[in-house]
Write a structure and sequence with these properties.
The complex is a heterodimer of chains A (about 120) and B (about 120). With about 120 residues, chain A is an all-beta fold. Chain A is built from no helices and 11 strands. In chain A, strands 2, 4, 5, 6, 9, 10 and 11 form a 7-stranded mixed beta sheet that branches. Chain A has a 4-stranded antiparallel beta sheet with strand order 1-3-8-7, with no helix packed on it. In chain A, strand 7 and strand 8 form a beta hairpin. The radius of gyration of chain A is 13 Å and the shape is globular. Chain B contains no helices and 12 strands. Chain B is mostly beta strands and about 120 residues long. The radius of gyration of chain B is 14 Å and the shape is globular. Classes of the chains: A mainly beta (about 120), B mainly beta (about 120).
Chain lengths: ~120, ~120
Amino acid sequence: GAGVSQSPRYKVAKRGQDVALRCDPISGHVSLFWYQQALGQGPEFLTYFQNEAQLDKSGLPSDRFFAERPEGSVSTLKIQRTQQEDSAVYLCASSLGWEAEGETQYFGPGTRLLVL
Amino acid sequence: AQSVSQHNHHVILSEAASLELGCNYSYGGTVNLFWYVQYPGQHLQLLLKYFSGDPLVKGIKGFEAEFIKSKFSFNLRKPSVQWSDTAEYFCAVIPPYSSASKIIFGSGTRLSIRP
């Protein structure tokens, strides 16, 4: 079956530009997560949705970062006025969301963002 | 600060050698533990997970991990590695009392297997 998909796969932006990254979760998955992975590091949590509700955005690094999931399916991560330190791979993950212990998150291929 | 530590950044082994990758976490209480793998050019995928029961967990591709609560460790093992095991391996934790199932990842260990 189809996994988590993300687009674009690569994005080059000039400093100051706004970017929008898209995530299509696995159909029927209630929970959706965004992570940021800097070069040579593990992924770091950004934000979490349960259906359309953004229940945790504690990992968003600044108010330039904004995420939405208006219909409880596709999600968009928007970064305004990009800075060089925003360069990273942005990963999306989804899970069934039944709050089962250790529920598995399925990851997408990521969007590699380079800010020049 | 509470964290997940992977002490080996890069491990190089020959085929058929035994593997053990270390992982320590600093959270008290009940945690959920994972090992994820990222093969070159591919997505992060789950190798194995522990949330309760037998502390020796078996995963895919012959990997296993042992949860030792007293040592706050969850080391990954494989008795005989193959060239195809070349990948980046991430240990991860869902901390106790997490308001969401957000995963805290270690910094990863790159495994290179010499054919």
